[in-house]
Every structure is written in structure tokens, then in C-alpha cells.
Amino acid sequence: MAIAAENAILGHPATRSGGVTSMPLWVTLLGVRKAKELLMTSKLITGKEAEKIGLVNYAVPEDKLAGEVWKVAKLMADVPPDGMIILKEALNTHMRILGIDAEFTYHRQLNALGRVGSTGSSFNLDAMRQRAKEQTPKTE
After folding, report:
1. No. of H helices and E strands in the chain?
2. pLDDT tens-digit profile of 50-73?
3. Fewer CB atoms near the end CB (10 Å): N or C, the chain?
4. Contact yes or no for 47/69 (Cβ under 8 A)
């Protein structure tokens, strides 16, 4: 579950620095085309847009965020624990069968190579922050 404020700024600016570790989740949630668009451009989006494309379950006004999170948490807490454990395990096993663990291992290895390879010197936290600042969408 993911709940964001409508004016939250979401994205993956680490791509500009060679970071790709979370990519398997983006592909799973968004499909290859949308994941490529957002990851290859380091485009930042609002919570409202993230809800529209399925990156988050809900986007709510910022002042209602905590209340919405508690509402969903209470609904989840009302599910009998044994049922929740089985459901969570079934969903996680489904992802493992699809190869999510292998994908994360592969992407961690790519990240390590990026740090020591020819592009490793490009990892710069200040540059990543500057890029995020430049690309931050204006919210209303």
C-alpha cells in the first residue's frame, strides 16, 4: 500500500547518478514503457499523477494524509492476523515466482558496477539533489 499527498513530489532522481536498484518495482507497477519514461528521464511527478498511473494507491490532500493513512491502517488491522499473514505470503510468493528477488539481486550488482566502473565517478549526491530541485513540478 502506498498513500501520498497530492502535492508530494515522487520520482527516481538517482537514475542520473547511475542508481537502478528499485527498477524492478517500477516495471511491475507501471509496465515497461512508463517505467522507462520515468526512470530514463528522472522525471518527477506529483502524488496526484502517481495515483493516476498506479505508482501509489491513493493521493489525498496533504492536510488529510495522516487521517487517510490511519483509516487504511485500521482497515488492515481489522483483517484477522492469520488471514493477513497468509495473504501477504501469497502475494510475496507470487512476486518471487515472477523473479523479483533475482531482479533485485541483478540490479544491486549493476549499482555496484556503476560505482566502480567507468560511470562510477558520476555518483554525486549534490548533483542528484540539484537535478531534483530543477525538475520539481510546480504544485497548486
Report:
1. 7, 4
2. 999 999 999 999 999 999 999 999
3. C
4. no
Written as nine digits, the cell of 25 is 518495482
Q: Which of helix, strand or coil describes residue 42?
A: coil
CB neighbours of residue 24 within 10 Å: 21
Q: Is 10 helix (H, G, I), strand (E, B) or coil?
A: strand
Secondary structure of 73-138 as H, E, C letters: HHHHHCCCHHHHHHHHHHHHHHHHHCCHHHHHHHHHHHHHHHHHCCCHHHCCHHHHHHHHHHHCCC
CATH superfamily of 3-135: 2-enoyl-CoA Hydratase; Chain A, domain 1 (3.90.226.10)
